[in-house]
Amino acid sequence: MGREQRNDVSSLGVERADEIVLTEFVDAVEIRNRRNEVDMRNLVERYTKPDVPFVLGSDCHDWDAYPLSSADFRGREDEVGFCSLKCLPTFEGLVMSITDPSRIKVGNASFFNPAAPKLDSLELVIDGEPLSIPMSAGVNVIIGDNSIGKSMILHALTGLYGDGEDAKRLKEGYSEYCKREKIEIKSRISPSQLFWFDDQGSIRGALEELHEGTEGSRFDRYFQEHVNLDVAKGALKRHLESCVDALASKVEYNDFMGRLKETIIPLEVHRVSDRMAVVGSLRAKPTRDVEGFNGAVESARDQVAAIKTDHGAVLSKLGPDAEKDLDDAVGALNRLLALGQGEMASRKLDNEKRGVVRRIANELKDRLQQAKTDEENSRDAYREQLDAAAAQVARAVALRLRRKAQPMSPEGVNVRVGRTPVGDLEFVSELSVKQIDRDYCISLLGGILNKTPLPIIVSGIEGETDLTSEKVASSFSMNKPPSERWAQEMKRQLDAAVDLISERGKITNEKIGLDSEPSAGLYGRIYFDLMAGDEKQGIYLVDQPEDQISQTAIRNDVIRAFSKMRQKRQVIIVTHNPQFVVNLDADNVIALGRDEAGKISVRSGALEYGCEDYSILGIVADTVEGGADVVRRRLKRYGAQDTSRRPQQREDLI
Q: What confidence tens digit (pLDDT) does each residue in 9-65 have?
């Protein structure tokens, strides 16, 4: 009892107590037992609130268990988690910490990643005077007037300026600026220490890359499921080819009938001759269809065989049966190709025989003509005319039967949409065209044909038509082909249009929906969420992350991403937006400016830091556009709880 009384402040007497209480040396007093609580509160009540410069209180709710919070923790002291605050050891630091949850940790938890690479200090030389600026392991924000050299620091630290003439001019401009202002940046961040550097303007490119999700991009790894691009394009090409073939089947018939109508054979009566006559000829069997078949089979075989070399790693993981099935498929295609090649050889041999018979027949015809009279030769020629006409009629019937109609609506073009969930987001891989349907196929035709004949061409594909080769060839908007080659040219141009279809990526969630297009602001938020979630070690440098992102998105989403990021890595930000300083609760602020003599000056410290020369919050309020309002709203978090406590001190911070 006597020892406690000797340690009690009230035992010192009023004058000594006033000296200790009013000295402004003590920032906080923890009450450690019930007796001290009563005595200290009685003592403090002697003074007005603005006169007491320290915080008075205790975590204890049960004095019999102190320093444990309750008797339940006796014997389990290792389970007790003490509270840690990230702040300067000042009253202002305490204000900032208790009004921001990110500054409070319970238990043995670290605010930063102690194993992450970091820049310990920013070493500068200004006008011959060395300057060392301590750097936080968390978020370091560089602010200052325009063209003061903020971005230059990031480029100088990394040595990264980009490529091309613009990058060359940028580097030369920075070099001239440093010479003029007598600045030298000594610190360097090696490539092994760097996580990523988003320089000014690169955020826009990153968002476009994120939107495209193209193969080989930084974000391709998030798109695990891909659209079946080659399969869809191949099916669409086959459909369009069948549309052209359908039109060609009717155009060819119309062309033939036009020529047939011009054929006039007069009716002639000739006496029957007892002399031998050779009429007609053996036509060669067609081989183009067999050539096309063999080419398709050979191409398919080569593609299947290439799977073993192109995707050997995957094939090996599927087991021995997979490789055997692949070999069997190649073997089956080889057998099919051998049958096709056999048919081709048979037709070629038959055509050779027909050629021999045709040559002998022509020789015999020539000898017989020399021995016949003019009347007999005239009769033989007339019979040949009749045979040719009969063949033409037969061909007309065959062409008429071969005519076919083809709906423009594609069938069998199944487009698989790739969907990869990542957290509450969904990375979607889809075609660059929204839908492959009748209208899209017609639009492809519209890209190569004139507007007026387009509906006539479409009608000719899907139904009957009187179009001829000349009319179709003249309907091309550019690169008009010869009339006899319009079908090949139409297929070529349609294939080229289909080849322009590509894979695109988008990121969505349940709220937006799969078919909706996310906004640019959403991509900005997603971008920094992905950067925060990346486990790669290293320092992240970003110049003006506010580009392309709304103030609301920064406040509601981006700040949260950077708060998460600082727990993993050191972050260095150049910004003109006060939210990245105050709302992000930057761990270290570096302010570039000029002194009264016009020389570059650097001031730094935590948000709550202040000295006789400056306060960081004051600099933010004066330097960053909109900074005063953001600072005022930030401090209201504390003021709203106790508006009577030291109001002048809160205003002084602003």
A: 556 666 776 776 776 666 677 776 667 777 777 777 777 666 676 777 766 667 777
Instruction: Using CB atoms within 10 Å of the CB of residue 232, give its burial: 0 to 12 exposed, 13 to 18 middle, 19+ buried.
Output: buried
Q: Is 559 left (phi over 0), alpha (psi -120 to 50) or beta?
A: alpha
**Nearest Cα to 137, choosing from 608, 587, 560?**
587
Going from the C-alpha of 239 to that of each of 403, 412, 462, 498, the distances in angstroms are: 17, 9, 13, 11
What's the pLDDT tens digit per position in 296-339?
Answer: 999 999 989 999 888 988 988 998 899 899 999 999 999 999 99
Q: How many other C-beta atoms lie within 10 A of the C-beta of residue 9? A: 16
What are the backbone dihedrals phi and psi of residue 195, each rounded to the nearest 5 degrees, phi first? -85, -55
Using CA atoms, how far apart are residues 654 and 650, in angstroms rounded to an integer?
A: 7
CB 518: neighbour CB atoms within 10 A?
19
Cα–Cα separations (whole angstroms), residue 397 to 243, 280, 404, 467: 22, 19, 14, 18
Q: How far apart are CA 525 and CA 561, in angstroms?
A: 8
Say how far apart CA 182 and CA 600 lie, in whole Å: 9
Bridge-based pairing state of the strands 418-422 and 600-605: unpaired
CB-count burial class (<10 Å; 0-12, 13-18, 19+) for 322? middle
Q: Name the token pair of 433.
A: 């065209």
Fold of 121-214+510-653: Rossmann fold (3.40.50)
Nearest to 429 by CA among 111, 145, 599, 217: 217
Helix, strand or coil, per DSSP, at residue 106: strand
| E strand intervals along 146-207 | 183-185, 194-198
Q: Where are the domains of the chain?
A: 2-80, 121-214+510-653, 258-268+277-402
